[in-house]
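S1.2 Input.
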Amino acid sequence: MLKQLQAICHILENGEDLVQATIIKHAGSTPRSVGSKMFIRRDGSSIGSIGGGLVEFEMQKLAREIFESGKARIEVVDLSGKDAATTDQMICGGRLEFLLEYLPGDPENSREMRRLVASLQGGGKGYLIKALDTKGGSVYHMERCLVRKDAVVLGEFSGPQSWLPLLTGEAAKKKCPAIVALEGRRFFVEPTFLPGTVYLFGAGHVSRPVADLASMVDFRTVVLDDREDFANGERFPKADQIIVIPSYEDVFRGLEIGPDSFLVIVTRGHLHDKTVLEQSLRTNAGYVGMIGSRRKQHLVYQELLGKGFTEDDLERVHNPIGLDILAETPEEIAVSIVAELIQVRAQIGH
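S1.3 Output.
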């Protein structure tokens, strides 16, 4: 998502217009979920995916009309009809509702998109609210604003300020983008933060491919190590943040750990692993994983049990880390770890 939005920023800043198609509602079996986006250029090419096949063809066709009118609209695509079934490409049988927006390549849209990118890059949490005042399928008036975690509102919102916590609260409760109806008006509310931050404790040979792969699937990645010659931008060009720590003691100082945090413990030795794991179990992280053999696990667990941790505490730990795909090389191990991170992220999201 972040890389996609960065590309969109460059396009808008170059003065090129776009049409943004976003899934705002779905029912039944559909290829993509609510919030999935596709940006369409005037030449018909696109960035992002909303399911491929018939769906994207329909959006590309409708985009031509949006470019002409300059007006937003809402469209429904039925994937259970005759046309869908005969394409051999889209047999899901569900129903998708799309918001199509015209994004002129002007300074205002560029600034708005840059604000969103800056929020994502900084790990800040917020919500993008779009007011959908519709008549039939046409959106005759639409406002957009970004509500930051500190309650600062960037953009246009003409409703009462008391509505904002109601709107953001509904999306927070569902943990995904949501349509919210409020006093006869309809709003589309999207969480605007990266879906999970991976904290890599240790900057060794396994961490490097984990950081690359995690970045590719839209995790924010933070690498922590006490060795500057390991924890640096040359070794981790795709990491969002690199922290050279004085030691693994009190390693969580200054970190915002929550249910969307994924702790991957891959330090250079089991003593450091134990130190980090002990601190990890005192957090409410959504995922805690530690690399190592069953023997190492037993030794570390026995020490932690002796310090007052319970079996239930240790049940939280994914160890051996990663899905069992018989991985051997650092790159294969990284695939297994990131696959497990994706799996847990999806479970948390639902």
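S1.4 Remarks. The chain has three domains: 17-104, 124-193, 197-349.
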